[in-house]
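User: I'm curious whether this sequence folds into something compact or stays loose and floppy. Could you predict its structure so I can see for myself?
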Amino acid sequence: MPDIVSREEWLKARRAHLDDEKAFTRARDALAERRRNLPWVRIEQDYRFQSTDGEVSLADLFAGRSQLIVKHFMFGPDWDEGCPSCSFWADGYSGLEDHLAHRDTAFVAISNTSMEKINAYRGRMGWTFPWVSSLGSDFNRDFHVTFSPEDLQAGRVVYNYAQRSFPSTEAPGLSVFFRPDPDTIVHSYSAYSRGLDMMNAAYHLLDLTPKGRNEGGLDYPMAWLRRRDQYDD
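Assistant: Here's the prediction. I'll summarize afterward.
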């Protein structure tokens, strides 16, 4: 436990830590600049998705914007509900699309399950962000967030840019796409695993507290987590 000190001593320590925070902010800004300067890959495949309005293309998901952020939401075709951790992240998405749209950016969640299941779960959780189904397309496999049972058994899963074992046929991720002109879509960025932390507002708030995320003594870091409507109190 930290010491309990006078206000003057606290201010001295806080100002010293502020220097560390400013250095981190500068490093983060520099990292974001390098991220924006990564090369692009042209999307050649005509990916199709199911939405509440019927079939849509990847271009349609841009909704007239030049940038698209996709949250790969874990929800398998034989699952009854979405992944608890993806749901934890998703509790912070509703309302974001209006702000992002004013910076020329669209946002959508994409899952490898039916629209019927997506709509039922979205209604249960009270979310309003756009969400479409990639069921039947190669989209999730091409972006390394859906794996076949055979790949899992053979240890051929590529996740977070490395071949590894993985406990599920579905995985979380985030991908960014850009339209430099009306006839071209490129893939600019994808993140997986801890790279998704930047999208979780609750974790960032907990990081400000004395206990932090308070996950050290658990069987695994998110063992405490439940869907928002499944906590006991």
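Summary: The radius of gyration is 20 Å. DSSP finds seven helices and ten strands in the chain.
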